[in-house]
Amino acid sequence: MKKLSVIVLLASIIFVLSYCSSSKKAKSSRMETAQLVYENSVKTVIAGHCSPCHITSKGGRKRAYDNYANVKSDIDSIIHRIELIPGEKGFMPFKNPRLSDSTIAVFKQWKADGLLEK
Fold first, then answer.
1. Phi and psi at residue 11, in whole multiples of 5°?
2. Has residue 56 been placed in a domain?
């Protein structure tokens, strides 16, 4: 009877462990699908927070950030300026409250993901 109990217990453990998977695999696959791209993420943030100054079609006279090439080439400057404290020289968005940390994180994540366009 004792041998049967041990065999059943071992069989149960083997059965349960056979369906376990590495959490690293799951985490890496989630990260691969979560890459930010300009068209779906960054462009939307810029349209909502950098308009009208950096959107030429809305009368903006600053460097145009309504296109991928300009945003990509200036990403380091953009991140630096939006991280400044209001009142500091170069703070953006000018005359607006500071962007939320989650909004700033969009720019940082996009850069970390490789500055993908589409």
1. -60, -40
2. yes
